[in-house]
Design goal:
Blueprint: H1 2-18, E1 22-27, E2 32-35, H2 37-43, H3 47-50, H4 64-76, E3 81-82, E4 89-92, E5 98-110, E6 113-122, H5 124-176, H6 183-210, E7 217-221, H7 222-232, H8 234-240, E8 243-246, E9 251-255, H9 256-272, E10 281-289, E11 292-299, H10 331-341, E12 345-350, E13 356-363
Parallel strand pairs: 8-10
Antiparallel strand pairs: 1-2, 1-6, 3-5, 4-5, 5-6, 7-9, 10-11, 11-13, 12-13
Helix pairs in contact: 5-6, 7-9, 9-10
The structure holds adenosine-5'-diphosphate.
Length: about 375
């Protein structure tokens, strides 16, 4: 029996010694009674130096007062816990080097002696990674802002010379007084078409950069919003003989104008990319998922092959040729930006020839007072 006990104790000691984190036993006076091998590695003190020393040996001077306060508080209510939750904790090595740590405290009783087992984890690498991540995300944010600014200025400034080209081309054509079947008339036609198309692209770019600029979060009744989108699209709905089936939709916190544009783009696309053989049938539904609303806009149109599913959300990316379906490849980029603005996500489920479902989520934004950063 005694042998068995000794064996268990020896095994336990081996485990403690092999632990890749520092384990320190401290008594109620704050003196160290035992440290494992890793503590020596971490703090560069020998076991002999630490045993009997006060815990303050491994705490930076500027934290000692606070430490004593916390230690006394722990002694009054000694329950297992993480030390200093929400604060940055530091320890100090023998050579004076400070490093960030996480400390777990556990009250234990050895014999009749109440002790505290402290588990100390060096989190320097994690902190370094966190700092790097924060730095990268700040840089990325800055780059995005710069890019948007550039986009806005460039598209604004490009409009001016383009308008000049369009009006001078028009004036020149009239001055030359060409006949309908003159070859030059055809050439003027190409120039005007290309310039008009470019004007649309620039306009789209400008709109893209302005999206969400002065947006204000408010409660939006999606059912009413869709009624008015439907009214706006009435001409193309009737022309294509489309039917819209809209199920119960919620009232959500959103940027109204942007949300409206999102539905408008998705429904217009469902009508535009319809099959020749069938009238467009579009269903719009929503369901609550955790703290978000998930919306689906589903159509019975021509669909999109899987390999293009990511590409279509990128600005100016088009899958179907302009000769068959007019467009500039901006609509879905707008949709993605609008969803990003709402901190949501958007994806497509579709197969060629089998219709498409655009599924997007908008989280509950009621806690945001203005545009989420
Ligand atoms: P545009 O319609 O102006 O080309 P979008 O950004 O709205 O630009 O769409 C990008 C591409 O995604 C389209 O060119 C089209 O190929 C495809 N697409 C978008 N919506 C649908 C849809 N409902 N069904 C099939 N294809 C679609």
């Amino acid at each position: 029996m005694l042998d068995q006990k000794k064996h268990t104790f020896d095994t336990f000691q081996l485990i403690v010694e092999a632990s890749p984190n520092a384990l320190i036993l401290v008594n109620k006076s704050g003196n160290i009674e035992y440290v494992n091998a890793f503590t020596e590695n971490l703090f560069l003190y020998s076991k002999k130096e630490l045993t009997g020393a006060t815990l303050e040996t491994i705490i930076p001077n500027r934290f000692i007062n606070k430490h004593n306060e916390y230690f006394q508080r722990f002694l009054k209510n000694p329950t297992p816990r993480q030390m200093g939750k929400g604060r940055d904790l530091f320890a100090v090595k023998k050579d004076g080097q400070e490093f960030p740590v996480e400390i777990g405290l556990n009250p234990i009783v050895v014999g009749n002696n109440p002790l505290i087992l402290a588990l100390i984890i060096d989190i320097s690498e994690r902190k370094k990674a966190e700092i790097l991540l924060r730095k990268h995300s700040k840089e990325l944010e800055l780059k995005n802002k710069e890019l948007e600014q550039f986009n806005s200025i460039a598209s604004h400034d490009l409009q001016e010379p383009l308008n000049t080209i369009i009006s001078w081309t028009d004036l020149l054509q009239h001055t030359l007084d060409l006949s309908e079947d003159d070859e030059s008339t055809q050439m003027f036609g190409y120039i005007t078409n290309a310039a008009t198309r470019m004007k649309k692209l620039i306009h789209g770019l400008l709109e893209y950069s302005h999206l969400g600029r002065d947006a204000e979060l408010k409660q939006v009744n999606c059912a009413s919003l869709l009624e008015s989108v439907e009214e706006d699209l009435l001409a193309s709905i009737e022309k294509s003989n489309a039917t819209l089936e809209i199920s119960d939709l919620p009232t959500i916190w959103a940027y109204e104008l942007e949300l409206r544009l999102l539905f408008q783009n998705l429904i217009s696309n469902s009508i535009k990319y319809r099959k020749e053989s069938e009238s467009p049938k579009i269903t719009i539904s929503a369901k609550a998922i955790n703290d978000a609303w998930q919306f689906t806009v589903k159509d019975n149109g021509i669909g999109i092959e899987k390999e293009y599913h990511d590409k279509i959300f990128t600005i100016f990316q088009r899958i179907h040729p302009s000769e068959t379906y007019e467009g500039s490849g901006i609509g879905l980029a707008h949709c993605r930006k609008i969803i990003d603005l709402h901190h949501g996500s958007i994806e497509i489920e579709s197969e060629s020839g089998k219709g498409s479902s655009f599924i997007f989520t908008i989280p509950d934004l009621k806690h945001y007072k203005s545009a989420p950063e």
